[in-house]
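Our preliminary data section would be incomplete without showing what the modeling component actually yields. Below, a chain of 143 amino acids is followed by its predicted structure, encoded as tokens that our downstream tools consume directly.
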Amino acid sequence: MGARGPVPNREDDLARPRSRKGSEEQETKKGQMRPVRVPRADPDWHPIAKQLYDSLKKSGQADFYQQSDWALAFALCDDLSHYKKSGKRSAQMAQTLYSALGNLLVTEGDRRRVRIELQEPEEETTSASVLAIANYRQDLGLE
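Predicted structure:
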């Protein structure tokens, strides 16, 4: 899990890159991503647990999830379902579940603590030169 404390600013909000600040961040170790099969949500789960699980599939952080992350998400949603369905709820159990969900980077604050920022997709634009050539070809009757 990432560092504790306040949520760091977004990279865009910084006056200079973090790498220039002389921090003692260690180099990131890299491994190979493997193919993933996302388990289906249990149809008997509480609606809130199903909604959370389905939202994880559609969220940007899922790009980083591997099979073990999905297994943990499944287990946590199963526990959340039992918690939500139970007549007697424990504050300690709620805290444990929400803390574990934080390990899956469910919220923006969780992601920013580990330096993951999800960006808006860039609009596909056609460069002016490509448009000019296409217009020129059309004027010449080549298209």
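The mean pLDDT is 83. Residues 15 and 21 are 10 Å apart (CA to CA). Preliminary results of this kind motivate Aim 1 of the renewal.
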